Amino acid sequence: MKKTAFITGATSGIGMATAKLFAENNIDLIICGRRQDRLDNLKDELASKVSVHTLTFDVRNREMVFEKIEALPSDFQKIDILINNAGNAHGLDLMQDGSMDDWDAMIDINVKGLLYVSKAIMPGMIKRQSGHIINIGSIAGKEVYPKGNVYCASKFAVDALNNAMRIDLNEHGIRVGAINPGLVETEFSEVRFKGDTKRAAGVYSPLEALQAHDIADIIHFVVTRPYHVNIADLVVVPTAQASAYVINKNNRLL
Ligand code: NDP
Ligand code: 8X3
What angle in degrees, to the nearest 10, is found between the helix axes of 114-128 and 62-70? Predict the structure, then answer.
């Protein structure tokens, strides 16, 4: 039966690549983000393949999250797959030097935003006793690295919430799992370094980083397993990356 996926952070990187791959594979889409123009362009690109609905909201805005999800048109109300992907790092500083605005952003977006969206979507899945939630964590949620502090903490929280969700939703037959990537070349580092594209490019050079489509491929694999198979927790790194901070390059410019 045809499925509908709700993807947060579909305006860029992993979320956008996943939306494109899902469209190639006949999965209808609800694509979300703050940048309406990008959502409109993506909808124009994909609408000949599948049904696409755009939702523009900031995951930090609790009221708007619920307002938008509750007002979904009837064709899009049955959400089979939730990809909790929206998130970013903001800054890379020693904890004693960190910006509290950056800390608020990471906790509010990566942790509380994921909770709000999940809270709005879980009741429908519980009612249908079916659904699949994929949380995009990070290797930063498995290992702390120097200056990663609050970003790592936010992704450790995603790791905990992924496990907690799987336990709490277990009796309802809902699949829950996390994909935890290492270095993926997206707009992630541009956001982290506040638009410093040169510094951002240095994170992914010289090494062959993962690309957004590599993660999209894995997400698609995960959602296309038979329903009795749940991939609960998966770490994926570039071959050049052995751990959060053992990376085969001359000098990682973090
Ligand atoms: P991008 O910066 O390319 O994409 C981030 C996405 O999140 C954008 O679509 C952005 O949309 C959305 N987003 C950010 N803040 C908000 C917000 N407040 N409200 C709604 N949407 C928001 O980065 P990636 O694709 O790399 O990141 C996707 C996920 O993957 C994140 O959770 C990140 O932590 C995780 N990850 C990334 C890794 C990497 O190396 N790139 C590695 C491991 C995990 P918009 O700005 O339009 O709102
Ligand atoms: C993104 C991976 O190592 O840049 O979550 O934090 S890392």
Answer: 30
Measured CA to CA, the distance from residue 159 to residue 108 in angstroms comes to 16
Q: What are the start-end ranges of the H helices in the chain?
A: 13-24, 36-46, 62-70, 100-106, 114-128, 149-168, 188-192, 197-203, 212-223
Q: What digits encode the pLDDT tens for the residues 189-241?
A: 999 999 999 999 999 998 999 999 999 999 999 999 999 999 999 999 999 99
Q: Which amino acid is at 97?
A: D
For residue 148, give the ligand 2 atom closest to its CA: 6
Ligand 2 pocket, 200 CB below 6 A?
no
| Distance from the alpha carbon of residue 145 to the mean position of ligand 2, in angstroms | 9
The residues spanned by each domain of the chain are: 4-236
Q: What is the CATH number of domain 4-236?
A: 3.40.50.720
The model's pTM is 0.98
C-alpha span between 41 and 191 (Å, rounded): 21
Give the residue numbers marked as catalytic. Answer: 151
Closest residue by Cα to residue 155 from 167, 143, 146, 164 = 143
Ligand 1 centroid–CA 54 distance in Å is 17
Rounded to whole angstroms, the Cα distance separating 31 from 43 reads 8
